[in-house]
Design brief:
This protein has helices at 2-6, 86-91; strands at 14-18, 22-26, 28-34, 38-43, 46-61, 66-78. The chain has 93 residues and is mainly beta. The protein is globular.
Length: 93
């Protein structure tokens, strides 16, 4: 079956931004790091880096994969160079 080949089901990935001051992201699987200037999170589609000023995570629910944040958002980009798990995970794949 086609669904068996995919393995674990991926959640839909959505990013909603309102006036560059509020953002909601779905499909979040983990958060690697965050501070008031950047947030690095992992989604089903890869690592997502959000940059800005005064960033604050308002809500995170990893069971449903939802994250909401506020602050002055300057960019959001997928970072293909970041692989979840670090050096040894990449080494022993």
């Amino acid at each position: 079956m086609a669904s068996d080949k995919k393995g674990a089901a991926q959640r839909p990935q959505n990013i909603f931004m309102e006036s560059r001051s509020k953002m909601a992201v779905t499909g979040v699987t983990d958060i690697d790091s965050f501070d008031e200037n950047s947030i690095l999170l992992y989604t089903d589609l890869g690592a997502l880096v959000i940059h800005g000023a005064g960033l604050h995570i308002d809500r995170i629910d990893l069971d449903s994969g939802e994250l909401t944040l506020t602050g002055e958002i300057s960019s959001a980009a997928y970072d293909e160079s970041r692989v979840k798990g670090g050096f040894f995970t990449r080494l022993f794949r």
